[in-house]
Specification:
2 copies of one chain form a homodimer. Chain A is of the alpha/beta class. Chain A has 14 helices and 12 strands. The first copy, chain A, folds into 3 domains: about 55 residues, lambda repressor-like DNA-binding domains (434 Repressor (Amino-terminal Domain), Orthogonal Bundle); about 140 residues, 3-Layer(aba) Sandwich (Rossmann fold), CATH 3.40.50; about 140 residues, Response regulator (Rossmann fold, 3-Layer(aba) Sandwich). In chain A, helix 6 packs parallel to helix 7, helix 8 runs parallel beside helix 9 and helix 11 crosses helix 12. Chain B binds a DNA duplex through helix 2 and helix 4.
DNA sequence: TTGTAGGCGTTATCAC
DNA sequence: GTGATAACGCCTACAA
């Protein structure tokens, strides 16, 4: 083994390269390379000798050299956002974990970076131009978000989690929010509820609007919309708002027997308000949230769960053909398959817990 | 510019290298390199020409080539853990963000990976041997954790967040847990409380034991330990346990007027139990948690906040001299400074909210 | 002050 | 079936 340690201590001492393996096995470097990348081209006994040498040295190909040679870092970039203080909705860490696993499944790595919103796009540009990452996953893309357009202009491959409203020019995956709230509404209807309230975000966020739409259309299908139309209130995502708006609903002459919220954060507020006026959640009032945060589990709150693991896998699969090192050794793309579907909606699932499990008394 | 696009589409088309800049500026590649790495060696007018060319082409040095040349990827590896379901304590995402920022401040990147606990160490080995990362940050290191020893044996530089109990052979940073609970206890004493309960984790977790110790020694200093010694209960980290144990305390003939919990998760349970028996938290019972999770903010729960941003910076600073590309261009370490301190304790701060702000009535 | 040469580790191409 | 050659982009000598 070439001893290249320049006196810096133990950490760099044992960098073993393909040449070391070749020397031990008594073959050339290329034969070692072939054993790893095209084993069929090597005679079995030679291969065994080489494999033994690899094993004994613990050789692993140097990633930087591979990246330089292949013009592909096999790295995906993902921006992490700061933790929000007033909202419980930390969906991000579940998605991050799922994304890391999905990316590892295709022999890539996940590089995360924090950006100061000012020069967000310049960070993307730098990571792309320096070849640090091959592609990006854009998270939290909402109505009118400029970032997909910007990254597209950079020429960097990417896939978005979420939609801007005009997404035909790039890959995206999103939750079918309306299907989620529709499932929740159906569940409540099946439990005998006829007055089902909705506490949502202010109009204009695509996500919030779609969740509201799922509630609305489902009630309509069951002929309940007329008696529930006035049970739709909106506020920013905060527990206090959930409590405040729920109080308004519960003070109505004909209060709802069930309340759906656009997020767990608001739903927790609803539960607080119910308890404050002596109602037992799950018996006197059904509550359903959205996101299935740890908090929902802890408070036995029914909630719509986003299939984040599936989203991550779906995103990575969509990205795969656009990656330079993409499908193993294939030229990544024959010219024809350009018109594949660019978008995909994934249906969430309802997790029923004590807050909505019981049927209405009458 | 060398057009190297092998028909794969737009994404790889615009890879601009140092040779392109040199051609435009009418100098050799090395002069361009000098402009970037040793500007003083270049005549001002030449430098300006080169800088203009760099600007016009948007040139950025290729990271893989730099890594190969420098034998340093300028990447730090960090393992992310899956989200826990029963616990609210998502300290991880706050730390992750802080770590990303700290790492970026020294011109490195953060690579995150998920591991299946079985072959955790083999992942570390692979990342190290392939040169994918230069060093690791080990998080959640507790009493007797084998990982620092394993990574040490790999020869990979690393720093641990947390302590195993025998940490003299590696870098570590940890929260001064006892100082955190001591601050909380002093705060409660100052508010007039004399019966202050503690709900902790079962003995044996270093972290939990140290937090308990902070409570105990502070009460002792104020001569309150005798009357509080029986107010120390333990259970696994779950809201339900917090509620159950708090109920036990509140059922005592002389119930506490304040309860500290070893985590926000348990503290939330305490708040639930208090409310369930008609007590108003903050008036009839003071409650303090630990970790300052978003949940604490939402429920107005006083909590001890870990200085995760400082931990991240401290870890990165400690790691810096061990990094191959460490202090700019210095040989990373003259042989002498080997006996620098390897460990560091950081004091948390108490965030006072409504759950404990008021003085006791009498 | 600027340019020339060589090599970091890997792999694709093409001889043999 | 195996080995020599070259190139990916950069940087550190050293030479001019």
């Amino acid at each position: 083994m070439v001893e290249r340690d320049s006196g810096r201590g133990d950490s760099v001492a044992s960098m073993v390269s393909i040449a070391d393996v070749a020397a031990i096995a008594g073959v050339s470097r290329q034969t070692v390379s072939n054993v790893l990348n095209a084993p069929h081209r090597v005679r079995p006994d030679t291969r065994q000798r080489v494999e033994a040498a690899i094993e004994s040295l613990g050789y692993q190909p140097n990633r930087a050299a591979q990246a330089l040679r292949a013009q592909a870092a096999r790295v995906i970039g993902y921006r992490i956002e700061p933790v929000r203080v007033d909202s419980l909705t930390t969906v991000q860490d579940r998605f991050l974990h799922a994304l890391a696993e999905a990316v590892q499944a295709i022999d890539h790595h996940l590089l995360v970076f924090a950006v100061d919103p000012d020069d967000e796009i310049s960070i993307y540009a730098r990571l792309h131009r320096t070849g640090t990452v091959d592609a990006f996953v854009l998270d939290g893309i909402g109505e009118g978000d400029p970032r997909p357009g910007q990254v597209l202009r950079l020429g960097a491959p990417f896939a978005a989690f979420g939609r801007t409203g005009h997404d035909s020019d790039h890959l995206w995956v999103d939750i079918d929010d309306a299907a989620g709230t529709a499932a929740a509404a159906r569940h409540l209807v099946a439990r005998g509820h006829r007055r089902i309230g909705f506490i949502g975000w202010p109009e204009g966020s695509g996500v919030g609007d779609r969740r509201a739409a799922g509630w609305r259309t489902t009630l309509d299908k069951h002929g309940l919309l007329a008696e529930c139309a006035d049970l739709d209130l909106r506020g920013e995502d905060a527990v206090a708002n959930g409590a405040r708006l729920a109080a308004v609903l519960l003070d109505r002459p004909q209060p709802p027997t069930a309340v759906m919220a656009v997020s767990d954060t608001l739903a927790v507020g609803v539960m607080q308000a119910a308890r404050d006026r002596g109602l037992v959640v799950g018996r006197d009032l059904a509550v359903v949230g959205f996101d299935d945060t740890p908090t929902a589990g802890v408070f036995d709150l029914s909630s719509v769960r986003q299939p984040l693991e599936a989203v991550a896998r779906c995103i990575v699969r969509a990205l795969l053909p656009r990656l330079p090192a993409g499908g193993s050794h294939a030229p990544a793309h024959p010219e024809e398959a350009t018109s594949e579907p660019v978008g995909r909606l994934l249906a969430p699932t309802l997790v029923v817990r004590a807050s909505s499990a019981a049927a209405t008394p009458c």
